[in-house]
Amino acid sequence: MYSHEDPVFRQKEVLFPDYIPDHLPHREKEIKAVSSLINSALKDPAGIVNIFIYGPPGTGKTASIKFIFRKLEEETAAFPVYINCFRINTRMGVIYAIIFEFFRKVRPTRRIPSRRGVAYDELFDLLVSELRKSRIFPVICFDEVDHLLPRGAEVLYDLSRLKEESIPVQLIMITNDQFIFMNVDPRIRSSLRPVEEIPYRAYTLDEMREIIKLRVEFAFQKDVVDEKAVDYLAEVACEMGGDVRIARETLLRAGELAKKDGKFRVTVEHIKQALSESQFAKAKSMVEQLSSKERKIISLIPENGIFYPEFYELYRKVYPSGVRDRMLRYYLERLARYGLITMERRGIGGSYFIRLNVPRKVLNSF
Ligand code: ADP
Ligand code: MG
Asked: pTM of this prediction?
């Protein structure tokens, strides 16, 4: 055999974030439901049913869609576009992302139009005329769609109304929050109908154990990971909401730790150490994705928490030309939605108390 073979990992890539497994155990039913909705729309574009997927983090929502999109690209004439609304959260950004993909895939020899100095309506009309000419069937996924709301929600309306002009567009919306559309303009909400809801529930302990075992089998050399380590990790991942992402990151770190200590066996101890490191890393990558305005705000929150009125004063003192009361609260609500802070009302009619959910040293590392 190879003398330079890695003594711990067989195929480390299996544990990387962008790796899409060929098989997603315990999601067969959901994948089938989504695929068959898309396939019937492909056959009968007049009968499009939009898709709304919701469920807690790490339950395979994104992985399923990427898996389905890969198959769509290989096997059908559909034109899948994947949009992560955490990164692209304005209607202009969304339309441009679709146009960009369209030109890249359908008109590869033409120059991709610039978005600079172009109005939204103009860009949208360009997309419509290209879609009308090409007669392809776009399947557009808005992952983490809550970040598009309420500011960018109009684009959902604009796209779903194209069916009235006989331009079929299939929309897929994914979110952690089942009730996200409750506060959205009823006009937009009704334009999205008909819509089929597909819930992703958290994995059970047995399912989690099986999912982890399968990843371990592909990623690690034989007998490197202790059975007890797998059991322990499955338990913790379930306690933390059934999040496979945590399990995957932890396996990768635990493997590195086992390599470093030279014994080449992943034990419960490695899992424990890796878990505490990955919590730190998770918070760090969340903070990294924030805008600089949001990062300034979160960095001002003291370790022991603070009431909102005091926080507003503190913020204005440090940033005299910063945002006003209403916007500051808007940003705080966003941070709370990301899970980076908690806001709770203290006492009846009392003011909000803001607590930090990320270790201070994460914020100091920027
Ligand atoms: P969500 O989008 O629901 O937050 P993801 O789809 O990003 O979660 O999944 C998180 C991680 O867990 C990814 O690495 C994904 O490949 C993995 N994962 C989730 N569900 C499964 C499953 N059933 N089998 C194998 N891996 C899974
Ligand atoms: Mg996701």
From this structure: 0.80
